[in-house]
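Supplementary Methods, section 5.1.

A reviewer requested that the exact input to the structure prediction be made available. We therefore reproduce it here, unchanged from the version used in the analyses.
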Amino acid sequence: MAASRRDTLKAIATLALGGCARTPASSTPQAVPPVSQTRNPTVNSRPLMQLRLSTSPTLNVGDTPTGQLSIFPVVDGTFEGERLRGKVLSGGADWVTKGADGVLRLDLHVTLQTDDGALIDMTFTGIRDDANHYFRTLPRFETASLKYAFLNRLLAVGVGEIGPDGPVHVIEEIL
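The structure derived from this sequence is encoded token-by-token as follows.
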């Protein structure tokens, strides 16, 4: 039975947040109960947006100390979700480093412009492992817009794929 996209995102978030229990700030060490005993370990999410990117020809930097570096300049794109939609402005890029293990490590930085003119800085790191059909990202957002200020304080995860017209990312907000 195939797992749904939501189940996959929940599993990723659960693994990522599994070690986040905090030790009480007291002078005497106290045992911290397992996460499963202190709260519901289920992580909930909701759709935030679908992001589509268009890139120009790749700039191959070559072998660096961390791997083979390529830069994918972002020339445009779109994003759409229930609470925001708009276009991706040109000028961003995805710095992709291919390690000796064949895994691609992503470092994207783009500017989003909403349909009502607000600007949003979006960055993400991620992993793309084509051999294992794995493409996941951790987006972050920053904006001065009061309407979209909720983006400044949310955590998100994304699932990506390379479509016929370029990268497509389905991004979920972790609740």
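Residues 19-27 have pLDDT under 50 and may be disordered. These observations are discussed further in the main text.
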